[in-house]
Amino acid sequence: MDFQYIFDDKWWMWVWHNFSFVMLLIPSIAATILKLIAIRHPEVPTDTIMELFRKICAKPGEKIGGNQ
Questions:
Q1: Which of 3, 14, 20, 40 sits a CA distance of 20 to 30 A from 49?
Q2: Is 32 among the domain residues?
Q3: 37: buried, middle or exposed (CB in 10 Å: 19+, 13-18, 0-12)?
């Protein structure tokens, strides 16, 4: 397989047109995984799960919570 073929114009056009969809998809997948953790381990407090979700969705360098 030719390396140039993988990153041709069609590939970049797909990335450009689907960028916003992918940016919405990543937090949705993270939220689903955290929800499955909450269902599988009900003893974990909701605040802990929400704090983890906030850390996943935080911008680099952004402080989350009051303990940092």
A1: 20
A2: yes
A3: middle
The answer, as to whether pTM is greater than 0.70, is no
- Total domains in the fold of the chain: 1
Interval 1-11: pLDDT, tens: 555 656 677 87
For the stretch 34-62, pLDDT in tens is 888 888 988 988 888 788 777 777 766 66
Contact indicator for 37, 44 with CB cutoff of 8 Å: yes
User: How far is residue 62's CA from residue 41's CA, in Å, rounded to a whole number?
Assistant: 28
Amino acid present at 33:
I
Q: Where are the beta strands (DSSP E) in 1-68?
A: none
